[in-house]
Amino acid sequence: MSDFSTARGKMVDGQVRPSDVTDHRIIDAMLTLPREVFVPEDRRALAYLDLDLDVSEKGAPKRYLIKPMVVAKMIQAADIQSADNVLVVGCATGYTAALAAHLAGRVTATEGDPVLAAKAADILATLGLDRVNVVNAPAAEGAPAGAPYDAIILEGATGVVPELLYRQLGDEGRLVGVFAMSTPRAVLVTHSHSDFGDRPLFDASAPVLPGLERPPAFVF
Known about the structure:
- It is a single chain.
- By secondary structure, the chain is α/β, with parallel strands linked by helices.
- The chain has a single domain, classed as Vaccinia Virus protein VP39 (Rossmann fold), CATH 3.40.50.
- It is built from six helices and nine strands; from the N terminus they run ααββαβαβαββαβββ.
- Strands 5-4-3-6-7-8-9 form a seven-stranded mixed β-sheet, with helices on one face. It has a two-stranded antiparallel ribbon with strand order 1-2.
- Strand 4, helix 5 and strand 5 form a beta-alpha-beta unit.
- Helix 1 packs antiparallel against helix 2 and helix 1 crosses helix 3.
- The longest helix is centred in the N-terminal third of the chain and has 15 residues.
- The radius of gyration is 16 Å and the shape is globular.
- The N and C termini lie far apart (about 55 Å).
- The mean pLDDT is about 95.
């Protein structure tokens, strides 16, 4: 356990702080949360490395926890406040949802793989994070029953404009994710008076969430 605690500190000091993550709430959450419990036992030695970590079951479609630095920067850009209602899309085993729960008033987390959704719910419950509701649902659909959301975070990339997710943002709501239509980069989308604006945040790559893939190009 002490080895994981040391690795957690090195992750924050070596990956997160140097990436201009200055929100002490995020830093404290990442130092507190045992990321290793969100990772299959045979891959726990990789839990704190700077990589997109495969957490899928053997034979199942690949699902990932995206890089800690990318998650931290996206959460910071989402500007989550203590009373906010937050949606985490494609939560895999629930790590990003757990981070959001340290900042927000309420968190809904979706996961399209029913096995991973159940695992996420179990892990979050074991950690006492009862403000997170895990829903087995496709990434593209979001969770309209819990809308409107003050912030939406994609735990992965999208190859299309996620219009159904946009519609679940409340007024002044923020959506953050890696948009992979051309040059992959993290993007902040804001909703104000029925209009949506967006601005690039930083270059980033992440595995595309199932259901948010770019349609195949037509070949003559």
